[in-house]
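Sample A.
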Amino acid sequence: MGIIDHHCAVKVYKYDSKRLWQTENKKSALAMAIRQIESSFGKGSVMQLGSAKIAERVETISTGSLTLDYALGIGGLPRGRIIEIYGPESSGKTTLALSCIAQAQKKDEAVCAFIDAEHAIDAHYAKALGVNIEDLYVSQPDSGEQALEITDTLIRSGAVDLVVLDSVAALVPRAELEGEMGDQQIALQARLMSQALRKLTGSLSKSHCTLIFLNQIRQKVGVIFGSPEVTSGGTALRYYASVRLDIRRQTQIKQGDAIIGNETVVKVAKNKLASPFKIARFDMIYGKGIDRMSELLDLGTQHGLINRSGAWYSLVENEAPMGQGRAKAKAFLELHEDIAKKIEQSLRDTLFEEPALADMEQEGTDDSENAAVKEEQESVISS
């Protein structure tokens, strides 16, 4: 019985030794393959997913709206990715994009570019939204190919942090420009976008630049079931985009009889970095953009930083009165910018608290234990 056990043990250890040899052989073969790849294509062509460069947290650019930053799940728009903002006319697409530019310039002193394919940018409006127009580079291309070539060159330079292209629907292919009115040009724009996105994706990741495409909505004919709405420029953009934002205007905001803005609803239609389908609501004031003070008032009340008793608002920290009614409370925050910044920072700390990084290394057997097992295997096999 002892002999049978002894032979069984030998068989098991022989099998383990073979597997160990195969594992070591695979590792050396893989190391040789990686060295060959790096000699051909450069260091870093193949990396482990847990390496510092890939596993690091994605940097973001704030949209200018706390509610939307929270809905995105990561605190803003991701760097090095493609973003699509689409919606009907006058829904706030350009305003949101200019707000992103203003936030990038303020926080990181980012270099930003605006590719104005629609030839409709208003410098005075951009300045009113907080954009530093002296440091904003603008291009008004003649064709779709020219617009995308300029975009590609700026991104490949590695010196630009944010590029906004307004809009996909205005990217006219050169063949369409050179043709006559009424000529049938089938899927030229879709093919142009598909080719451009294949080139741009890799450049964006390497240069850490964010590219925002603004897009318009069209109606499909003869649709009975489902939504008849479709974005222009083909389907390639919806695949390459890491984040897609559907922006719509809702109820009007009035001051007396005058309409001064509207409530805006943004749905995160696609999100590769956090949970999608979240909805953000905020006010947009004509000529001013996103109503930041209104957001601070609402979120501050929800998270216990501002106390509301009936129509009266007061600060929770020192019980200082802010005024009676929403308008006076907003005026208080506008007058005391330091208090508004303190509330905003407290909200960001609460809403965007970084989760503890998970330990990405698998826990294995202790090195001394591994050495002992290996030594025991070798002694049994030799005997």
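Sample B.
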Amino acid sequence: MRAFLILWIGQTGSQLGSTLSGFAISLWLYIETGSVTIYALSTVFLILPTAILSPLAGVYVDRYNRRLVMLVADSVQALATLGMVLVIYLEVYQLWHIYLAMVILSIARAFQRPAWRAAVPLIVPKEQLGRASGLERIGEGIGMILAFSLAGALLLSIGLAAILALDLLTFLLAVITLMLVRIPDPPSIEEDKAAGSVWEEMLFGWRYLFARAGLLRWVLMIALLNLFDNFASILLVPIMLNFGNEAVVSVLMGLIVSGMLFASLFISWWGGPQHRMRFILVMILLQGVAIGLVGFSQSLALIAIVSFGWMLTFSFIGLVNVPLLQTKIEPAVQGRVFASISFFTLMLDPLGRIVVGPLADRVLEPAMMEGGGLAPWLGPWLGTGPGRGLAVVFVAMGLMHMALSLYGFSNARVRLLEAELPDALPDLDEIRDEPAAQPAAVSETGMAD
């Protein structure tokens, strides 16, 4: 795993810088403008281009060497960050400069993320993919903790331009580590070569998923899980602010997010469960319980405790799901298939951000005030007054998680996905030594022949 560890250092450093700068930009925009709409738009600009371009990015990830794709993507992100540093430092920035840079960053990430995810199985033995997944998430967990804990203080002490300059250095680290390793190409597939048009190759990821009923159902479940998580996570800080001030909530959010780091360290040590799907479905059930308990909680300490459990189970799901997919999807098509999965999940993300705010503010919050329409029914359980409409959302999303878990256990195609779908990942020696044009073919439908 030497090559992976070298790359992991660079990608983790880059993740730290990107998470810190991303949160700092959003916070800075809110401080500068005082507009919630502008603040929300900044997150949409960072997500939507990635979602829209994911299918196209997957084509190029599979067409070209994944190391080259990552080098180009990291370099583009570095240039966009440099542009923001210059306009902010020189005080010539306008709002559209920041939004344009965010769009460029999002476009580059559409290529970088599937390339990195598809590269890992080419440099890590399949029995070590669980540990690799844990190590990947460590950087994400540390980045989120630092972002919540330090972004505000750094913004006041050194300013946004300096934070972005630090992010620029982390991109340089990522590029240097990429230059130090070789990522082998996966065995090529003759039908892919014959496909020709980019449009046909973009559709390949969809055909691949639709040809595997269990995998398709699982991907749809992932998309719904992300949607339900977004509905709840967007409201976590607002519901906590009903019980404490900004300083206390900021510290507690850092502690809550540390659940991701704990889960990552644990999986890195353990390697992951033998029966991955069963483990994931149990975690979804427990996650639903934790999210629902946030709604029932009426103290800041209790919300923090159950939210830590929420983040812990959320992280376990992702940590185990990634190696599951990497093992079951042929390396030569992982770029397109992972990109199609990203499209499914990310396109629902803005929906949650757009819908949940008005739903809570205009419908549920008034309904949970004294004399409101829902107060007689739910008030004895959740309480009434400010923040109790938000509590309804948490309880509802917790129930949706539990329903998805029960559906997964009851649906044989999902429950038995690991048994029905054979391992598609060869040993590393086969990837390194086998001639590129000798693998099993994948038909037009995406099924292995």
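B remarks: DSSP finds 19 helices and no strands in the chain. The chain has two domains: 1-185, 197-421+436-449.
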